[in-house]
Specification:
Layout: H1 3-17, H2 31-35, H3 44-47, H4 80-87, H5 91-100
Length: 107
Amino acid sequence: MSHFTEMLQKLHSKAKQEDPKEPQEETLLNCWEFKKCGKEKTCIAATDKKYNGYFGGKNGGRFCPFISGTECYDGSKRSTFEKLELCVKCDFYNNIVFRVFPNRGKK
């Protein structure tokens, strides 16, 4: 198993276990709401119910960096690995990562 695949499995597991009780307002936003892209009816992150509730989002709305085939950026559907370079620069992605791993970058 590759390191990348192992990391995705750990995130997937953590996302399912997270308890979104009393979230702050910013945590209620899904990717399409945060980015204001208008793709809430067509993007797999917005329509695929199998990721519903992950990190407290609607469908895959807070798990988009880890879903293949999302319509991010230019609308091209990329695999999770192909879009990784774009996701790590994304303000929404970084919001999720810092929420899930609050000690990231701290020594």
